[in-house]
Amino acid sequence: MPIPEDVTGDEIDKDVRQELQSLPKTLADDVARNLVMVARLIDEDPEGAYGYSRVALRLASRVAAVREAAGFAAYANQKYSEALAEFRAARRMTGSVELWPVMADCERGLGRPEKALDMAGAPEVNKLDKAGQVEMRLVAAGARRDLGQLDAAIVTLQSPELASNSVQPWTARLRYAYADALLAVGREGEAREWFAKAVEADRDGSTDASDRLAELDGVEFVDALDESETETEGGSETQGEGAGAEDVPKAASEEDGDDD
User: Fold this and answer.
1) Predicted model pTM
2) Nearest to 32 by CA among 9, 11, 56, 3
3) How confident is the model at residue 245, as a pLDDT?
4) Is a pLDDT exceeding 50 seen at residue 255?
5) Cα–Cα distance between 18 and 63 in angstroms, integer?
6) Which of 13, 71, 76, 236 is most buried, by CB atoms within 10 Å?
């Protein structure tokens, strides 16, 4: 697969670069460049990222970082069985428990929430750092919801990390999951409060908490072009020509929006 000339391979994490030192230099550089492309594309073009991960895997399947990257690329494409196999391989190579939560989430993706809950109660969880433990809690709550255990999902998310006013990289997602769980059981007032707290913590837009909050507040977003076309058909003058790419907030009906 083609790689832009500006990608040198030096962009990768120094720990990954160190892993690649076991390979011949030319090969290590090729693998590094493919790994850079995986990282660059995984959010916006997961299929493209998957393609580059397969190239890296073909070149250096015995490197743990390559297996991990292949796992995340498969995971982003909902290829959960393949992702789980790659994560297990990476874990065997490193002995690290870091991938334990995402492995459990793969079990959910494969329709095995009970297995994910078993993993949430395993000794490996105690070896995770704080971020990993929060991630494991999120996965466990999701597994409870998969099983229809909505109240148990809420209880699972209740934790010192949720109650803390400190904003960490995982705070927005934890608050969002809690708000969504509350909404699923009809506790709209509390859900609104926690969606608002999620918005406060979501500094990089990792959730759609602001949209969910707007829905609960009875605000709907109408495409300006659609509205303009409707006015034209009704004999009104078209205003704001060229504004079709913008979403304009508009008061909704008297009933609050509900999203489960």
Assistant:
1) 0.80
2) 9
3) 34
4) no
5) 11
6) 71
